Amino acid sequence: MHPLISIVDDDDGSREALAVLTRSFGFVAETYASAREFLASSRVPRTACLIADVNMPGMTGLQLHRRLVRLGHAIPTVLITAYPDDAVRARALRDGVIGYLSKPCSDATLLAILGSALKAVDY
Q1: Cβ(23)–Cβ(1) under 8 Å?
Q2: Burial category of 106 from C-beta neighbours within 10 Å (exposed 0-12, middle 13-18, buried 19 and up)
Q3: DSSP H or E run through 78
Q4: Phi/psi at 67 (5° precision)
Q5: Where are the domains of the chain?
Q6: Is 104 in contact with 14 (CB distance < 8 Å)?
Q7: How far apart are CA 98 and CA 95, in angstroms?
């Protein structure tokens, strides 16, 4: 079975571009327009890695990561943003996020971080 990568981003273009790229790496990708949509899905327990936008209305990517941890879902999380902020990056990494990338990120960088994430959970 191929690892499931869940992508949460409120920007349609970014979300779909990440899905196409992730699928081109051989992963299964599911997309969600909001954190709440992802949390309500049946895919949360099956998600091998989460890619989430930092700045989303309602619940940020970091808030989503924290909520998942509180719910007992230690999903390796990669945050992406068009507006990098060193303070947010430091806080996210301190909270256990495995990567903090700027949009657009290179294909090689994303593939490397997904590989690290999947190794961390022995996938």
Answers
A1: no
A2: exposed
A3: strand 77-81
A4: -65, -45
A5: 4-120
A6: no
A7: 9
Give the model confidence (pLDDT) of 45-104 as tens digits: 999 999 999 999 999 999 999 999 999 998 999 999 999 999 999 999 999 999 999 988
CATH number for the region 4-120 comes to 3.40.50.2300
Structure tokens at 48: 């091998």
For 76, the token pair is 């390796």
Element (H, E) at 117: helix 107-120
Query: Taking the model in full, what pTM does it have?
Result: 0.94
DSSP-derived 3-state class of residue 79: strand
Cα–Cα distances (Å) from 113 to 12, 42, 57, 110, in that order, read: 22, 25, 25, 5
